[in-house]
Design a protein that fits this description.
mainly beta; 7-stranded mixed sheet; 4-stranded antiparallel sheet; about 0% helix
């Protein structure tokens, strides 16, 4: 079955960096668009990055993370990554990876990122 497992979250000071990873299994990882979302407390879940399979590591970003976040996939070990730099308190959220397969959305459990001094 499809499984997505995020890791790498934590607490970081403003201006710092974190790298999130999503381990994917149960589907043809190199065939599907993959997504990173985030959800801050009391707010809706927002799309922050779309990673397309072709060209490899082609990605599109929400304006509020463009230039600070870089998403990529590694087909050798079926992992999705999100490198986050210049983090701000507004980036505090639970971060999720996602894939849409045959009309069904699959989500990981999420990983908490807290940006605070």
């Amino acid at each position: 079955q499809v499984q997505l497992v995020e890791s790498g979250g934590g607490m970081v000071q403003p201006g710092g960096s974190l790298r999130l990873t999503c381990a994917a299994s149960g589907f043809a990882f190199n065939k599907f668009d993959m997504y990173w979302y985030r959800q801050a407390p009391g707010k809706e879940r927002l799309l922050i990055a779309t990673i397309i399979p072709d060209p490899p590591n082609g990605a599109y970003y929400a304006d509020f993370v463009k230039g600070r976040f870089t998403a990529s996939r590694n087909t050798a070990d079926n992992t999705l990554s999100l490198q986050m730099t210049s983090l701000k308190p507004d980036d505090t959220a639970v971060y999720y990876c996602n894939v849409l397969i045959a009309g069904t959305n699959y989500w990981g459990q999420g990983t908490q990122v807290t940006v605070s001094s």
